[in-house]
Every structure is written in structure tokens, then in C-alpha cells.
């Protein structure tokens, strides 16, 4: 985390979002009954693509809160729906004392700002990394993650209907055509086109299959899960409408960085994921999701989404993007190998 000096002047440049967060705190501190100074502010997240800054603010009596600000052009109704989703999740998870969400302490969607309680603990990614060294129970953490997703989905079920892959495949076809024509550059274009073709075949296998349509987290991955000894807390809800519950699980597996990279001689399962990890999450979820053709399709579609984000880089991938591409091609190889055995 980066320490932010609260009384520094606002300046343009790489730290502009931090400066915006400082100015925002000056505006809202009095409204929540906190002094502007003395406080300590540390950056938790800066997303320049979406003009979002998230900071931990520690004030009187060492009490800490999280300030989240959206800047530039944003939609107040979107922020309001995100906060509503968080409150809805609080109600759904009420019967589960070890599954939680942060408390909304103050918000003003019209100004793009919310203040929430600070949740102590490690991110899910860090907790799993510590568990590799025997500092924590990796399977127990993943079972709790599965339980969290299950409780959230089953508490907000709206309907179970026939899956319609066509709503996804139209866009896939359009993008594949642009890649073939050379209009859109993606890393490893032939492999990307192979993934697009796989999606069409997977879509035929799951057309009209039963699929749970419910309220979801919307960005369910290890960096948005905070692990403490007695509870698991999800943050940064983006569930603004109904969706397929399996999308949360697909995002969980594919936005984990090195957390699920196989270790030496480790048994592998679906899509080359560590078998023990897969079994633990699904045990918590209460369902062998990887055996459902709808999940397989949504998993592959999440791969397509992440791969598409690498378009337009001109081949100049950052080290983390290169590693992500290696993981995506490995997942694709595993999916194709499993398909050949069917």
C-alpha cells in the first residue's frame, strides 16, 4: 500500500487519482463527523482505466474506513445499484455468520463516493499463497469460498431456465471475423480462433440445458475476497442485474494469477486446474460444476473475455499479461484434450 500525504496539493500526473482521493476526503470528512486531519490515508487500489481510487483512511482512535471514489464520467445509478447489491447480499448471508460483506457507512452516488467499513485480513490470493507454506488450510479456504458463492446464488435465485448460448456467440463470431481479416490484433491469433471455434462446439453441447439465473457478485475472484480466521468477506460487488451463477465461478478460476498454477507432481483436474483445489471449491459449492456443460461454456467464454482484453497491445505485453496468456493457452489445451476424449 502507498502512503498518501493528506495535506499535499493536487497536481496532475501519475498520482492524479490519489490527489482526487485526497480532495474527495477533504470534502466528505466533515459530513461523516471525521476531521480532515490528523488522518492516515493509504492507497488500496488505483484503476486508471475506470478512474476509480480506493483508499484506507485511519482516523481517531485508530478506526479505519475505506473511501472509494469514482471520477470523471461515471453513472450515479450504477454506483447506487452496486451498493444495493451489497446490502442485498448482507440480507442473503445473514444466516451464515462466517460469510460477510462490508458495512456501508456513508454514500453519495451523485458524487461517486462511498465510505465502507475496513475489513481486516488477507486477500484470498495472499491467504492461499501462505497456505502453500503451511500457514493456513488451503482446502478449508477454498471450501469457504465455494460456500460463499453457493449462499449468494441460492439466496437470490430468480429462475432456472434453458441456457441460450446464442446471446454470447454472436459477439464471438464478430470478433473472430475481425481477427481473421487482420482488423483486430490479439496475441496468438490462431490459438484465439481455436478458442472461438471451441465455444461454438461447447454452445451446441449446452443449448437449452438447465441453467441457474440469479443475482451474482459480478466480480468474484480472490482479490475481492478477504480471509480472516473467523469469516470470509466479499468486497467490490458489481451485480447490477441477473446473471448466470456459474459466471462467478468461472471468473474465480480465471482471475487468480499464479494462485492456481500447478505445483510439481500435483494432480490436475478440469482445464488443468489443481484437482485438490477444484474438489475443495466444489465441495463448498455443493455441486460438481465442472461436469455441467453450461459451466464449461461459461468458463471458456470467460477465457475468451480475458484473452480479448489483450487485443490492441501491439504485442507489447507486460510480464503479468504474458503469464496470463501462458495460463490461457494451457487452459485451452486442457479443454481441447478433454473434448477429444468425449
Automatic annotation (TrEMBL):
It comes from the Bacteria. Signal peptide: none annotated. Pfam families: APH (PF01636). Residues 73-280 form the Aminoglycoside phosphotransferase domain. Gene3D superfamilies: 3.90.1200.10. InterPro entries: Aminoglycoside_PTrfase (IPR002575), Kinase-like_dom_sf (IPR011009). This is Aminoglycoside phosphotransferase family protein.
Amino acid at each position: 500500500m502507498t502512503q498518501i500525504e493528506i495535506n499535499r496539493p493536487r497536481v496532475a500526473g501519475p498520482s492524479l487519482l490519489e490527489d482526487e482521493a485526497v480532495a474527495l476526503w477533504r470534502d466528505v470528512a466533515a459530513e461523516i463527523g471525521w476531521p480532515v486531519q490528523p488522518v492516515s490515508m493509504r492507497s488500496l487500489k488505483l484503476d486508471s482505466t475506470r478512474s476509480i481510487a480506493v483508499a484506507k483512511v485511519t482516523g481517531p482512535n485508530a478506526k479505519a474506513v475505506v473511501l472509494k471514489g469514482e471520477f470523471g464520467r461515471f453513472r450515479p445509478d450504477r454506483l447506487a445499484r452496486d451498493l444495493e447489491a451489497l446490502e442485498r447480499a448482507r440480507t442473503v448471508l445473514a444466516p451464515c455468520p462466517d460469510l460477510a460483506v462490508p458495512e456501508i457507512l456513508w454514500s453519495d452516488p451523485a458524487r461517486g463516493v462511498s465510505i465502507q467499513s475496513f475489513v481486516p485480513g488477507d486477500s484470498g490470493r495472499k491467504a492461499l499463497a501462505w497456505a502453500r507454506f503451511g500457514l493456513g488450510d488451503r482446502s478449508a479456504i477454498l471450501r469457504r469460498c465455494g460456500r460463499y458463492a453457493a449462499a449468494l446464488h441460492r439466496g437470490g435465485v430468480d429462475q432456472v431456465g434453458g441456457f441460450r448460448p446464442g446471446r454470447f456467440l454472436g459477439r464471438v463470431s464478430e470478433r473472430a471475423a475481425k481477427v481473421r481479416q487482420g482488423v483486430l490484433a490479439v496475441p496468438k491469433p490462431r490459438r484465439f480462433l481455436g478458442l472461438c471455434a471451441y465455444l461454438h462446439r461447447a454452445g451446441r453441447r449446452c443449448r437449452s440445458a438447465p441453467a441457474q439465473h440469479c443475482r451474482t457478485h459480478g466480480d468474484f475472484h480472490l482479490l475481492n475476497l478477504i480471509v480472516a480466521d473467523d469469516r470470509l468477506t466479499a468486497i467490490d460487488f458489481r451485480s447490477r442485474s441477473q446473471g448466470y451463477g456459474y459466471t462467478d465461478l468461472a471468473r474465480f478460476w480465471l482471475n487468480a494469477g499464479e494462485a492456481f498454477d500447478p505445483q510439481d507432481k500435483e494432480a490436475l483436474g478440469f482445464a488443468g486446474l489443481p484437482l485438490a483445489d477444484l474438489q475443495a471449491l466444489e465441495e463448498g459449492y455443493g455441486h460438481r460444476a465442472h461436469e455441467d456443460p453450461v459451466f464449461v461454456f461459461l468458463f471458456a467464454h470467460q477465457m475468451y473475455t480475458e484473452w480479448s482484453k489483450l487485443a490492441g497491445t501491439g504485442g507489447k505485453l507486460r510480464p503479468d499479461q504474458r503469464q496470463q496468456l501462458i495460463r490461457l493457452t494451457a487452459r485451452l489445451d486442457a479443454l481441447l484434450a478433454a473434448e477429444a476424449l468425449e
